[in-house]
Amino acid sequence: MIDKRPLIALTAMVSLIGPVILSGQAASEIYLYVNDFVGVLTYNEIDTLDNICYELDKLTSDEIAIVIVDTTQPESIDIYAVELFESAGIGKAGKDNGVLVLVLTDKSLWRIEVGYGLEGILNDEKVGTIGRENLGPYLQAGDCYAGVFYTVKSLASELTSDPGRLNQKGYDIQFLRIDYWQLAVAIVVFVGVLTKGRIFLWLGFVISRGKFGGGRSGGGGSKGRF
Question: Same domain for 116 and 196?
Fold first, then answer.
């Protein structure tokens, strides 16, 4: 199996550049794994979180989506979380083994939404404890990265605690997708412009992180305020 970890650094970089190219991108268009629509995370922080989620995905096929937005209006955070979970298809189809970690900055709210297939492992009480012990305190202190990091680490620890769930050979993950038609157009533009740094723009134009696998939300989870 090809180790795709080196590609995570590239896609994390593109995720920072993407909003410049794809201005006005809807928060419903989320990809593996970190989606910061507010800009509170650094490149290195995104890279670290992506790596944790990637390793979990490879070992268990479980998918964690991290989404940071400033608002969910006109929906409540609960309805928004369910709709986003369903539209993005977090988790694998047929396994429904996804988790959404959602942070709403303008209302100081967080929610962790759990897919059907993981409710036996991540029940509401356990998820609530993870959120209250990690997301709440760190977000209140203004450290979004630490809150998300320790939350994701705690979730990953729970999801890998049973050796029977682990696939030591790993699962294949389509982390990148490339639109080759856009690539051809972008190369022409790049050659025509030949300006320093332009390569990052056309890379962001043609390369995006893979999408989630088609899982469903179970309606379970927990939320809190910070």
Answer: no
Give the model's pLDDT for residue 202.
Answer: 44
Write the DSSP string, 135-147.
IHHHHHTT-HHHH
- Closest C-alpha among 4, 59, 8 to residue 33: 8
Residues 183 and 79 occupy one common structural domain: no
Do residues 114 and 127 lie in contact, with contact meaning Cβ atoms separated by under 8 Å? Answer: yes
Structure tokens at 212: 């989630």
Burial of 55 (0-12, 13-18, 19+ CB in 10 A): middle
**Looking at residues 28-42, what average pLDDT do you find?**
91
Q: Supply the pTM of this predicted model.
A: 0.78
**Residue in the structure block whose two tokens are 């977090």:** 90
**How many angstroms separate the Cα of 142 from the Cα of each of 47, 98, 115, 185, 193?**
20, 27, 29, 42, 41
Pairing state of beta strands 34-36 and 98-104?
A: unpaired
91 and 191, same domain (yes or no): no
